[in-house]
Amino acid sequence: MAELEVEVYGKKYTLRGSSMEEIRAVAALVDQRMKELFGAEPRGLDLGKALALAVNFAEEICNLKKEAGPSQLAQRLEKFAEKFSRLEKLLEI
User: Fold this and answer.
1) Domain total in the chain
2) What pTM did the predictor assign?
3) What is the pLDDT of residue 4?
4) Which residues are CB-neighbours of 77 under 8 A, at least 6 positions away?
5) Is the separation of the CB atoms in 3 and 20 below 8 Å?
6) Domain limits at 76?
7) Cβ pair 56, 37 in contact under 8 A
8) Cα distance between residue 53 and residue 36, in whole Å
9) What b/e readout covers 22-32, taking b as 16+ CB neighbours within 10 angstroms?
């Protein structure tokens, strides 16, 4: 298991994952989504923002279910579930 310090929305976190590359990708996705939802200038992460981010990711999962065919959906959801799992670990910190 790999461990890496990353910066997400202006704050440093130590995340663990199967590879450094995966950790960087997940952190970049969460950072990007935080900036899209709450603005480019970090203003701290609170429970409300974390919940909004989780709801945003859940909405994306629902949209994937509607758009993708069964086999495509399984593949895309598996990848997304991995990213969402990393988000859950981030929120535990």
Assistant:
1) 1
2) 0.65
3) 93
4) 61, 64, 65
5) no
6) 2-92
7) yes
8) 10
9) bbeebbebbbe
